[in-house]
Amino acid sequence: MKKTPRQINNPLYRNEKLHYLASGRQMPEIKKLSSRKKLRLPAPTAEILPLLSKLRPFLKRAWPSGSEKDISWMSADLAALWEVSRTHITLIKKLLKMGRKPSRANLRQISIDLEINWSSNAPGHMQTLRRELARFRRTLYETGRVSKSKE
Fold first, then answer.
1. Per-residue pLDDT tens for 37-74?
2. pTM score > 0.70 for this model?
3. What share of the chain is helix, strand, coil (3-state, %, to 5)?
4. Any idea what DSSP says for residue 65?
5. CA-to-CA distance for 44 and 60, rounded, in angstroms?
6. How many C-beta neighbours within 10 Å does residue 148 have?
7. In this structure, are residues 56 and 73 in contact, taking their beta carbons and an 8 Å threshold?
8. Calpha distance 87→118 (Å, rounded)
9. Which of 19, 42, 83, 85 has a Cα at 20 to 30 A from 74?
10. Domain segments of the chain as ranges
C-alpha cells in the first residue's frame, strides 16, 4: 500500500508508529530494522520501548475503564514526550560543552535540532495527549478516585 503525501506529512500519521508499538504489535518497518545486526539507536529513543512496557500496565491499573486504544495512545504520547525532553537535555549539554568560543556550524546545527525537537516532535504528541488526559481525568472524577478540589 503506497502512502499518500498527506499521510507522510501529517504529524498524527507519523505518531501512528509509536501508537502501533504501544499496542504491543510490531510494524513491518521496525521488523526490518530490528533484523539488522548493528542497529544503534540514540539513547533517548532506546529508552522508549522499556518505558512503554512499564507505562501500559500502570495505566491499565489506574484507568480500568479506559479502552485499549486510549491507554495505548496515552502511553505512547507520554513516552514520546519523554524522548523529546531527553533530546532537549542532550542538546543543551552539547551547547554548554562548547566553551567560550563555539563554532557557528555547531551552534547552527544545535539550533536546528532544537527547533525540530520542539516544533515537529512535541506538538503532535501534546495534541493527542491532551485528549487522552481529558478522558482520563473525567473517568477519575466519575469513579470517585479523585476528589474535586474546592476553589
1. 565 666 677 778 888 889 999 999 988 888 899 999 99
2. no
3. 75, 0, 25
4. T
5. 24
6. 7
7. no
8. 10
9. 42
10. 5-143
